Amino acid sequence: RDRFDALISVLNAGFERGQTVPRLEKRGDRFVQIPYEVYAPRAIAGIAGLKNTLEDRVIPIFMSRRRKDEPVARLAQAVEAEAQGLREACALACLTRIGDVLTAYDQAPALLEREAIDDRAVDLWSPLVAVALVADAEDGGARTAQLLALARELSTLRDADADTGQTARLVA
Q1: Residue 128 in contact with residue 104, Cβ under 8 Å?
Q2: Cα–Cα nearest to 133, from 90, 100, 89
Q3: What residues contact residue 137 under an 8 Å CB cut-off, 6+ apart?
């Protein structure tokens, strides 16, 4: 339970830049409370839903159970090596273009707000939109438009769960 609560506190605070969680560290004979910055993108996979407060701080990726007759492919070492190569290439691309990414990160909130995305979702989507803007500028792609459309679609799902959302109005 304590470990779960510690994880939840990191997840609840870690969606927003500058947020910290306190942790105790032994310094000499006593423990001192140290704040740790916890902002970082995270992926959590599961079939069960999340607590409402945590669910409001994520970009959901919906999963469904596989059918009993569906085969499960095992990841081979070659796949892991390829994935590691892709991670390294992505990291190098971001570091090489970090100035452009930071500039795009400053522009992303305005793009999302024009799409009527709520402020919490703007915080969540801005890093992805920033990277997409830089990639699109390089090769003329449509990643940013696709992300904005997805953000719009997911924001309507969030609205549907709200007390004043479409679902609540229909039920009433």
Answers
A1: no
A2: 100
A3: 100
**Total-model pTM:** 0.70
Rounded Cα distance, 135 and 9, in Å: 33
**Type of residue found at 97:** R
Give the count of beta carbons closer than 10 Å to the beta carbon of residue 82: 11
Q: Where are the alpha helices (DSSP H) in 67-118?
A: 77-96, 98-114
Spatial neighbors of 43 by CB under 8 A, at least 6 apart, are 61
Cα–Cα distance for residue pair 55/59, rounded to 1 Å: 8
Name the pLDDT band for 83 (thresholds 50, 70, 90): very high
Q: Give tens-digit pLDDT for 51-77.
A: 777 777 778 777 777 888 998 888 788
